[in-house]
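Record type: monomer structure entry
Structure origin: computed from sequence
Chain ID: A
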Amino acid sequence: MRALQTTVTFLQMHARPERHVAPPSGPRTMLVRADRPPLHFYRYLYEAVGKPWVWVNRRRMNDADLRAAIHAEGIEIYVLHADGSPAGYAELDARNPANVELAYFGLVPEFTGAGLGGFFLNAAIGLAWDKGPRRVHVQTCTLDHPRALPLYQKMGFTPFSQTEAFVLPIGDEPHPLVEAQRRAAAAGLG
């Protein structure tokens, strides 16, 4: 499998945004903190949210390393439920209390387009600012959902840096960019 080239955009905000996003009128929603979640549940969330967008870093981790990462002091995981089912998750990294990172954020594909993204991101940003940091930051890349970068900007994040990176997918990734790069390689164009 060939590595995929992606552009990573780093974004930040230095003040709590004044924006409030109400929950959508569709599914009943509930945001729950998962304290020290079992590995199988975390792996489910990571796979369900990230596989379409070629999230691979945590998929490659063995159990001991993953447990250390997600159970570390300062790591908080929040699960969005819609009509009783896990609809997405957000992971905050507040190990450096002055610079809180929204380390992972996303929705399960079945819940995208239901008006949950802005509501959930607004809630995650609020939880990050509740820690009293000087800055909240996040990163996204061109392999993520096409609306990820515009949504982060709409919610108050400002890009401050970009870099090119390569991602080696695991298995048969369904992402359209993966398929386009495979076709180009097969045609001798990549």
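Annotation 1: The two ends are 13 Å apart (CA to CA).
Annotation 2: The first strand starts at residue 4 and ends at 13.
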